[in-house]
Amino acid sequence: MKKIYLWLAAAVSLWGDAAQTNMAPFGVDTRQYMKISILDQRVLSYDDIDGVHFSEISDAAYSKSKNRLYLVSDEGALFSFSAQFDDKITRLEPSGAVKLMDKNGKKFKNWLHDSEGMTIAQDGKLLISFEGKAKIAHFDTDGQMRKKYEIPAKLSNPKNYRTSNKSLESVAWHPKYGILTAAEWPLKRDGIKEQTVYALSGQEWRFRAEEAANSAVVSMEVMDDGTVLVLERAYSGLTAPVVITLKKVWLGKSKKGVCKTEVLARFSNAEGWHLDNFEGLAKVGKNRYVIVSDDNDNFYQRTLLVYFEAR
After folding, report:
1. What is the pLDDT of residue 112?
2. Which fold has domain 19-310?
3. pTM for the complete prediction?
4. What is the spatial distance between Cα 73 and Cα 33, in angstroms, rounded to a whole number?
5. pLDDT digits (tens, 9 = 90+) for 85-110
6. Calpha distance 246→267 (Å, rounded)
7. Phi and psi at residue 310, in whole multiples of 5°?
8. Cβ contacts of residue 115 below 8 Å, gap of 6+?
């Protein structure tokens, strides 16, 4: 009986707050959808982790060496999970949570803690980008800022963004170009569909945003072949469809200055997909990734974690 109890307790700990779900419309084969294979889908439902409210997840990063999945919220909180990604998600257990702090070990003020993008650099550093007062910084996994990086002048000037809430939504690490970032919407000087990937070294690559209204870059990851996987979210009001797009961007491979792109998957609630506000993307293995949604701290929304393989 004791063994059965322990097994049940472990099962509840493992899956009780990460329940299986399916966001696909009836009859859609998620194992072969467009150019991806959806391997697993979870709803993450935690009230608090280590006393920190779990909500409004804006991005993800995965350390394969530590088997740690990090989730950052736009309220300046960093959550860590012990995670294993095989053909399915075989382990996903919360292991800690901290509030992000500045170099002096103090919590960010409310107007400075809008942490939106996150990635892990080649040397294992955790990099986080911020909206509002746009910045990119290296943080320890205990939440303390160690270094703030210099970003291109056009990105550091808040007047260049369409709004203060449409700045550095994403950050990625490229083995050739270093730290990459992108504004959620193009800068004021650019056309509404003229998106740009920026390297902190000053290099730029332009590509076309998707045609859906207000399609915005909300996360990026670097793929195994050096292309950039971009997560775009289109939302323009309650009466308009939500459209989520995953697409590859070939840096440097351009026609008339615009990079080649390829859509790997597109999801729309107008086509029956049970979507939420997907904002985060992380590489977790060879050709394998997760996307995660922001529940906006709203009872009627969910934190979805979708594990997929790009074919």
Report:
1. 65
2. Neuraminidase (2.120.10)
3. 0.93
4. 29
5. 999 999 999 999 999 999 999 888 76
6. 9
7. -90, 125
8. 58, 59, 72, 73, 74, 75, 76, 78, 100, 128, 129, 130
